[in-house]
Every structure is written in C-alpha cells, then in structure tokens.
Amino acid sequence: WAQAWDGESWTATIPLAEQRSASPTVMPVVVALAEADRRDGAPIAWRAEAPVGGNWPATAATAQVSPALQAALEANTAAPLPAPAAGLLMALLMALLGGLLLNLMPCVFPVLAIKILGFASQAGDRRGQRSAGLAYTAGVMATFLALGGTMLALRAAGEQMGWGFQLQSPAVIAALAALFTVMGLNLAGMFEFGLLAPRSLCAAQAKHPMANDFLSGVLAVVIASPCTAPFMGASMGFAIGMPAPQALMLFAALGLGLALPYLVAGFVPAVSRLLPRPGPWMQTLRRVLAFPMFATVAWLVWVLGQQSGIDGAGALLGLLVALAAVVWSFTLRGRTRWVLASVLVACTAALLLSIGGNIVRTVEPAAVASGARWQPWSASRVTELNAAGRPVFVDFTAAWCVTCQYNKKATLADADLLAEFDARQVVLLRADWTRQDPAITAALTALGRSGVPVYVLQAPGKAPVVLTEILRKDEVRAALARL
Fold it and tell me: Cα–Cα distances in Å, from 237 out to 98, 265, 446?
C-alpha cells in the first residue's frame, strides 16, 4: 500500500481483494507515531474515519460454505448486546450481588469483626444501630464512587487504569501498611485514639459519633480492594464501556452490596438480636483482631517486595518498627513522653529520608528461564503462538490480589491440571499487573474486564474463553475439553 501527505491532507491507497462483503463509504483508520517520535504523557495514536475515494469494483460471488463450517462460525459469533435498559439493570444486579459476596472474601474479615463489635456495643440502642448502619453504608458507597470516579476520569484522560489501580503504587502500599500497623497496635491495647488525639478532635467525635461509622466504611473498601468476588469483574468491565453516570451507578451498587448486611442489621431487629450481648468477650475479641491486622501488614510488606525489591521491603519494615516506637512513646506520661517522642520522631524522619527512596523505586522483574512452565505474557506472544497453532492460557494476576494468590495455589498449581495443559500442548502465560502496565490494561479492557484476576483460554481461530474469578479445576478442564 502507499500513503502520502498533501499539505494537511493524508491519502492512502490500499489494495483490496474482490472477495469482500461490503463497499463502505468511510473506513476506520488508526494512525500511530513511530517509536522514536513518542513522548511520555502524549498520545501515541489517533483514530479517524477516512472517506473512501473512487469507485468500488464489483464484488465477487460469495463462496458457499459447508453446513458444518457455517455452524462453527455461528457458534463463535458473539451474542448480541442486550437492550440498554435491560443490560443496565442486569449489570446493577450483578454489581449488587458482587458487593454482597465481597463480604465473604478474607480481605474484609478484620473490618467485619470490628463492625460486629460496634453493633454489639450498641445492643438495645435501636436508633444508634440504624444511624451506624446508614453512616457505614454512606462511607462504603462514597469510597466506591470516589475510586470508580477517579478510575473513569483517568481513563478518559488517556491513562490505562483498572480496578485496584491504587495498589499498583508502592507509596500507597506503604501507607496502608502504616495504617494497619497503627490499627493493630490500637486493637492490641497499646494505646487508645482518644488519648493521643487532640481534645478538639475528641470533642467533635463525641458530638458526631456517626463519623467513626463513616470512616469504618471507607476503611472497609480500602481493605476490600485487593479481593475480587464473583460477578465483580464482569460488572466493572461493563462499567468502563458505559457513560460516566451509568458507570457510577454500578460502583454505587457494588458499595450498597458490601454494606447491605449491616444496613439490614441496623433496621431489622430480628437480625441485630442474633448478635451476642456486650461483655468481657468483646475485649478478648478486640485483642485477637490485632493479629489479622499484623498479618495484613506482613502481606503488604511482601507485596511491596514484589514491586520494589528486597531493599524496599526491608526499608518499609524498618520504618514500621520506628512508627511503632513513636506510637509507644506517646503513651508515656509527663516530661519523658515529650522528650522521648521528640527524639523518636526525629530519628524516624531521618530514617525515612535515608532509606525511604527504596520503597518507591522501580525494580525490573527477574528474567524467566526459557524452559519455565509459566512464561511472561505479551500480546505479540499470544498472536505468535496462536499463529503456530498453539492454544494459550493466560493468567492476569497481581501480587496484591488476594483472590489471584488463592487461585494460584488452589487451582493453577495442581499437578494433574498442569499435566492436562501439557497433554493438550497449551502454553501458559502470566500477565503480572502488580505495577501499572498499559499493555495489560488494554488487554483486560478488550476482554471486557477492568481488574484482576482474569483467566483466558485462547485457541487458534476461536473466540477467547474468559473463566470465572474464583477459578475451579473442573471449570478449567471443561474449557480444555472444548479445544
């Protein structure tokens, strides 16, 4: 083909075979910059509708295909999109159910237990329980809307973002580790927030007790973001292709689903009566809940190690120990408190300046041996393997994704399943989304998803098969049997 510029007009001449099915008056065109001309933060390609000049030659007669081939072609044809209203309603129901199922994910367990403690402490106070349920729901939905709105705005600005984008930042991971460390120390009984907070803040908290419930809703979403429940992936993938108001409705439905059990408990006396009465057990449970918080910190340090290397993980551990020492110093009394706290704060600041850079630095992933079972994913690699007649199984994953790690251990590490992959000559590829990767985000968008985990079986000449978020061995075997 040939192309040339004439002033501000671009003309392309493209040879076409007569065996075509249409004679369009305009054709979609994507113009991309050469690698050498690309700049960070600037667009690299533009899409346009180019008018067709000249006359189309007559089309050749359509070749007849066999009934078997026609049936195969129809089987691989995507189902028509549902009507907009029905499609939106179904997506909202899926989002609501996905948020509800998110309560069963391990990420949310610590916050669930804390909420149970809060409800139990308000036994007999029906008005207080209703207010707490409403405030918690407002916090959950507001945070879902904030994260969803930020993601949609960044995507509209040209950024390749998906659900969980905040966890791709080492700085966010480190901040969450610090937050959960402080929460763990509080639950363990080292300090009470009321003793360390300014008096004005304590007075405002006493005047507006619903603020605690609202913040616990915010915290629930922050903790839940590494987990993906069934139906969440499809509903969020549906959201990114919708107008912003409708997409935000889906994120609000996710939040409502997550908060629904507590909203019901606040308004239905029969549910709240199932909770145990207040007693000494609450203090014991509170101490026990400190350990899941510390376990979450350990997991976040591991995630940071995947993003920033062993030096980054070591730096974060050192800073967390220093943070714990600072918190402890503020529990002391008298002059000792201020002297020791000042020294420890200064030492922590110096430590942050000296080793904090290790937390946010970028570390190149380790090279994978050519004979390794799982190979790094790339779009070109998938095309190359399919062109060679090899089916491909792609695991879109991230170190911060708890559901991904569960599936990796429970399903994808199964020896019998791996043997079945080998028997069918399926190539295993892993797309690591731990840090931001526009190519992986674009691939997820093409599959109708906006977050991980996503599991895809791609056979030559067939539409990709997207499996469920909670991966089961029998589901994978059934997909392999259809190759």
Answer: 13, 31, 9
Higher pLDDT, residue 169 or 198 = 169
pLDDT of 65 = 52
Distances (CA, A) of 436 to 167, 431, 442: 9, 11, 11
DSSP letter for each residue of 118-172:
HHHHTTT-HHHHHHHHHHHHHHHHHHHHHHHHHHHHHHHTT----TTGGGG-HHH
Q: What is the CATH number of domain 374-481?
A: 3.40.30.10
**Separation of alpha carbons 447 and 92, rounded Å:** 19
Tell me if 381 sits within 8 A of 429, measured CB to CB.
Answer: yes
Q: Per residue in 214-272, pLDDT tens?
A: 988 898 888 887 777 777 877 777 777 788 888 899 999 999 999 998 888 888 877 77
Among candidate residues 142, 166, 161, the one with its CA nearest the CA of residue 239: 161
Q: Helix 126-156 crosses helix 244-267 at what angle (to 10 degrees)?
A: 160
Are 261 and 103 in contact by the 8 Å Cβ rule? The answer is yes
> How far apart, in whole angstroms, are the C-alpha atoms of residue 305 and residue 311?
8
For residues 31 and 3, is the Cβ–Cβ distance under 8 A?
no
Sign of CA dihedral 217, 223, 228, 234: positive
272: its two tokens = 């709240």
C-alpha to C-alpha distance for 277 and 87, rounded to whole angstroms: 44
- For residue 228, give both structure tokens: 């993906």
Q: Where do the structural domains in the chain lie, given as residue ranges?
A: 2-54, 84-306, 374-481
- Give residue 146's pLDDT: 93
Two structure tokens written together for 426: 């399926």
pTM for the structure as a whole: 0.70
Helix, strand or coil, per DSSP, at residue 429: strand
Examine the pLDDT at 155 and tell me if it is beyond 80: no
Residue 78 confidence (pLDDT) above 50:
no
**How many residues make up the chain in this entry?**
483
Cβ neighbours for 18, distance < 8 A, ≥ 6 positions apart? 57, 58, 59, 60
